[in-house]
Design goal:
By secondary structure, this protein is mostly helical. 73% of the residues lie in helices and 0% in strands. The mean pLDDT is 82. It binds zinc ion.
Length: 73
């Protein structure tokens, strides 16, 4: 089952279209929702490839998780 928050909010997050409050709520949600976390990782990988740079505001835990996913492949 796919979480209904995942796709729209994840892409808005990556495009920095969320308010600070929305971004904080989203990041908290990603911390507990494996579905959204997986989707965000996918989007981050695409974003990384396209932009070759990290979001400076990415939470460290999430960044570390993404790096572990990327380097595992
Ligand atoms: Zn979710």
């Amino acid at each position: 089952m796919r979480c209904n928050k995942s796709e729209l909010i994840a892409s808005a997050h990556l495009d920095q279209r969320l308010t600070q409050n929305e971004a904080m709520k989203y990041q908290a949600h990603v911390g507990i929702c494996a579905d959204c976390r997986g989707y965000l990782v996918e989007l981050e990988q695409v974003s990384l490839i396209l932009k070759s740079s990290w979001r400076p505001d990415a939470p460290r835990d999430l960044r570390r998780h993404i790096m572990s996913v990327i380097t595992a492949k």
